[in-house]
Amino acid sequence: MRPLLRFWPDLRSRIGVYVLVLVLTLLATGIQLIIPVITGYIIDGPIAHKDLSALWLPVFGVLIIGLAEAVGMWARRMIVAPVVSTWEVTWRSRLFDRLQYTSVAIHDSWESGQLLSRAVNDLSQLRRFFAFGLPFLVSTPIVLAVGTVMLVIMQPVFGLIMIIMAVPAIIAVAVFEKHYRDTSRRSQDTMGEVTTDVEESIQGIRILKSFGRFPWAAERFSEISARLKSLEIRKAKLDSWLWSVLLLLPTLAQAAIVAVGTWGVIEGWTTIGTVVAAVTISMVLRMPIEMLGFLLADALMALTAAGRYWEVIDIRHDITDADGGVDDAPEVGRYSGKLRFDDVDFHFADTERLTLQGLDLTIEPGQTLALVGATGSGKTTLASLVPRLQDVTAGRVSIDDVDIRDMPVNELRHLVSVSFEDPILFSTSVAENVEMGAPGASEDEIWEALEIAAAKDFVSRLPDGLDTQVGEQGLSLSGGQRQRLALARAVIGRPRILVLDDPLSAVDVDTEDRVQRALREILPDSTTLIIAHRPSTAALADVVAVLDEGRVAALGTHEQLLESSKLYRELMGASAKAEAHAHPGTQSSAQTTTSTQSQEGGRS
Fold first, then answer.
1. How far apart (Å, rounded) are the C-alpha atoms in residues 238 and 559?
2. How confident is the model at residue 589 (pLDDT cuts 50, 70, 90)?
3. Got the DSSP string for 423-436?
4. Taking residues 494-520, what's their average pLDDT?
5. Average pLDDT over the chain, rounded to whole?
6. Cβ neighbour number for residue 85 with a 10 Å cutoff
7. Between the N and C ends of the chain, which has fewer C-beta atoms within 10 Å?
8. Domains of the chain in sequence order
9. Rounded to an integer, what distance in angstroms lies between the CA atom of residue 598 and that of residue 287?
10. What is the pLDDT of residue 546?
11. How would you class 427 by CB atoms within 10 Å of its CB: exposed for 0-12, middle for 13-18, buried for 19 or more?
12. Dihedral angle at the C-alpha atoms of 457, 463, 467, 468, nearest 10 degrees?
């Protein structure tokens, strides 16, 4: 029960109210045991003596007990709902907070559906368990014990019958628990796979439609669903065996009490009223015994859900804050923006192969450095180290000679702004997506950022302008439009350091040229690290670094590298040809110059 016991710090704050819920549950389920006693009294008293006047008080008592049961159930539900809902919000917020501060590498190692199922399905299961399952799981054994004691007091042989019946019940429960827990875990994990598959199919609907891959997607989904079905059927079979045992045993106990009780009445060592009371108590106890199967299944699913929840919470918190954080809007103007990589090594958690090794690079304040390299050379990894989306394995990254690991994360991420090749927009308005880069920005500042990103014209033509809803992940916009909104989000806060991971790959060369010149004019003090694939992008940078197998292979201006670096000429020549094929007839002057110089360098 350890995963459930770990919730104790959260439960402790409202434990008084929760104890009241447990008491009300016990009252509502246990008070029915008094009715059989009253029934036995009526049979052996007023009925046996034909005393009608003595009947009114016990009948009134039965009425009061019924009202007390109803009020107890009503009060329990009214009290427990806000308590467990508050706990659910707390747990979900904790899970969400943990995911926000977990490195990107760890996110990449988890299927999104598994995280979603933990945040939604598992926490809903825990809320239901603490609201319903646990109170009844606590009260049911008490009711069974009290009922058995009452039978022993009435007639020891009746109590002995119930105790004998409990032995096979305990054995059945032990066998059930062992098999059901494993099946429940596998079922909940498979539900996470179903969630992942549905999410991927929805996000990739354009690919599935374009390639006519609906049969493949349907077959894959059917395979996972069939696996989930078999696990759910196994759970149902285990449930059915337990329920059958728990239904059969009380019936056998009732039959034994009736048989033994009848013999006792004939022999004169018990009364009809006692036998009727004992049989009625066994009937009252039958419901808790039958309910025990459901409660145990619910408890085991809650136990599995709790274990899955703590698996996420226990993820190593590798992106740590240096001093507990700063204000929401820290002052970053005191930094000049000198960005330096000192002997940086990096490898992903699932491999020892170094993506970056012994990398040294310095970008001076206000300087624009273009980072070029073949696919897999480590460009995007290097860019992700600056805002600490991941941390270096060895060496250090510093800003103004301060190790970024010694800076509060909140301050660092106000100092550094990023824009990625594959932009993510949120299901909200254009204005709110852009304002995310500078909370509280005015409308004029939003329009200025859009103008820098060459997005002002198309935004002004949208149906509701800045208030236009962009849809989930911004898929209602084109790729180039999404990239420009993401770039506007990155520049609106006028960051001291700007990291751009090929942010304009989906726009034409002329638009890219216009955006880069606007960036240099309006943000002259921003230190910029830009991952470049186009010659035109590299040509506009102050310095170009060529990355090869995780190291800086060459460093210089665009013109210098065309003359001195064969690798750079090959990279730029391939990029120029690709750009020419993608945009025939629209080759910019920068590209023409690059192609000419590349040819000259090759001849020399």
1. 74
2. very low
3. ----SSBHHHHHHT
4. 79
5. 82
6. 12
7. C
8. 2-313 (1.20.1560.10), 339-423+496-603 (3.40.50.300)
9. 86
10. 92
11. middle
12. -90
